């Protein structure tokens, strides 16, 4: 097994989702804007940079720069600062952490992204990867003038997007004639250092098919070992036919306390505070996704946008480390984490890096 890697979010979203009854009872501000929406200049820079400096100091391997084109900050996370601008910003202010940019085919053309990414690859000396995100928040498409096509077709479009990007990175001159993209004699100067590393999300049949043919990593929503084992097994059956090696990154939100009992009491209180009305509203907002947010019986999966608590990194440092070792044995090679839990950061993260490969 390979050495475990770690990843965290870039703090670019204006608000985290809040699915509790207290959130539903709060009256909206008259302006309708997030409390910090007016920040700019040094105050904004400090807000966006401090958590990333912490992640780099902790030795986190990857920083995922997501793109939420539009969000309420209630049922789902709030809108985010632009992914391209923020990747450039973090590239200029970091030295070691590897940047992953979430790119939505349909909102971007692949050839201009190939040009932008080749430049960034040079500037960071190879510290860049792409996370191709086919898109599930359907309201965003029309809002930004992107074509909303059927779910599986979005993955077909993304597959072509990856092919164009890889082709441009691999060949000095590249042409492509597909259903969604036509490229004639594309040349990138300067050339990227390469090779290109491709991440993707999704857990549907279409997502698994694309992963087995085109991607290097799958970001998995959180879940218990039996669920994650099933997804990994299903994907590996596909890669056995394509002959490709695919790696898995699991989203997990740790809740680390000195004892298991303390952690269980805290997570139970969080579950008890969830507002079912907000969950129903979120279900409508995420209706464009398949294979995610489907298990309404798992209350842990209902606490956040990407089912991070459902991975069960809840308990004492030893309990959490054993849980992570279990996932490693199943084939998870990277944990996509939040870094809000100080006890986890100080006692689990250093031990995680010492696990045998």
**What's the N-to-C terminus distance?**
5 Å
In which order are the strands of the major sheet placed? 1-2-3-4-7-8-9-12
Can you summarize the main beta sheet?
Answer: 8 strands, parallel, barrel
CATH topology: TIM Barrel
Helix content: 40-55%
Structural class: alpha/beta
Q: What is the name of the CATH superfamily?
A: Luciferase-like domain
Known CATH architecture = Alpha-Beta Barrel
Overall residue-averaged pLDDT value: 90
Total discrete domains: 1
Low-confidence stretches: 26-35
The SSE order reads: EHHEHEHEHHEEEHEHEEHHEHEH
Instruction: Tell me which oligomeric state these chains represent.
Output: single chain
Taking all Cα atoms into account, the compactness measure Rg is 20 Å
Number of helices: 12
β-strand amount: 5-15%
Task: Explain what you see.
The protein has 357 residues and is of the alpha/beta class. It has a single domain, classed as TIM Barrel (Alpha-Beta Barrel), CATH 3.20.20. The chain contains twelve helices and twelve strands. Strands 1-2-3-4-7-8-9-12 form an eight-stranded parallel beta barrel, surrounded by five helices. A two-stranded antiparallel sheet has the order 5-6. The protein has a two-stranded parallel ribbon with strand order 10-11. Strand 2, helix 3 and strand 3 form a beta-alpha-beta unit. Helix 6 packs parallel to helix 7 and helix 7 crosses helix 8. The protein is globular and about 60 Å long. About 3% of the residues have low confidence.
């Amino acid at each position: 097994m390979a050495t475990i890697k770690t990843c965290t979010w870039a703090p670019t979203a204006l608000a985290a989702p809040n699915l509790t009854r207290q959130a539903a009872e709060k009256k909206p501000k008259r302006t309708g804007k997030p409390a910090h929406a007016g920040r700019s200049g040094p105050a904004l820079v400090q807000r966006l940079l401090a958590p990333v400096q912490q992640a780099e100091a902790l030795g986190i391997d990857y920083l995922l720069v997501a793109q939420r084109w539009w969000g309420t900050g209630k049922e789902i996370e709030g809108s985010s600062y632009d992914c391209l601008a923020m990747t450039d910003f973090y590239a200029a202010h970091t030295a070691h952490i590897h940047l992953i940019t979430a790119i939505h085919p349909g909102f971007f053309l692949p050839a201009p992204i190939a040009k932008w990414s080749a430049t960034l690859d040079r500037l960071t000396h190879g510290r860049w990867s792409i996370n191709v995100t086919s898109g599930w928040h359907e309201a965003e498409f029309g809002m930004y003038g992107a074509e909303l096509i059927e779910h599986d077709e979005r993955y077909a479009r993304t597959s072509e997007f990856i092919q164009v990007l890889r082709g441009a990175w691999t060949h000095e001159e590249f042409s492509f004639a597909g259903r969604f993209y036509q490229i004639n004699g594309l040349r990138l100067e300067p050339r990227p250092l390469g090779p290109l590393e491709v991440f993707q999300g999704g857990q549907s049949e279409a997502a698994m098919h694309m992963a087995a043919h085109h991607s290097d990593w799958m970001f998995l929503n959180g879940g218990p070992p039996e669920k994650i084992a099933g997804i990994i097994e299903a994907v590996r059956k596909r890669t056995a036919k394509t002959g490709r090696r695919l790696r898995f990154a699991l989203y997990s939100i740790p809740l680390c306390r000195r004892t298991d009992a303390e952690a269980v009491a805290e997570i139970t209180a969080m579950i008890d505070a969830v507002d079912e009305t907000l969950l129903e509203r979120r279900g409508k907002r995420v209706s464009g996704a398949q294979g995610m947010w489907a298990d309404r019986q798992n209350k842990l999966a209902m606490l956040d946008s990407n089912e991070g608590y459902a991975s069960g990194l809840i308990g004492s440092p030893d309990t959490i480390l054993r849980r992570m070792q279990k996932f490693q044995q199943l084939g998870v090679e990277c944990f996509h984490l939040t870094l809000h839990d100080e006890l986890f950061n100080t006692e689990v993260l250093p031990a995680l890096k010492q696990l045998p490969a």
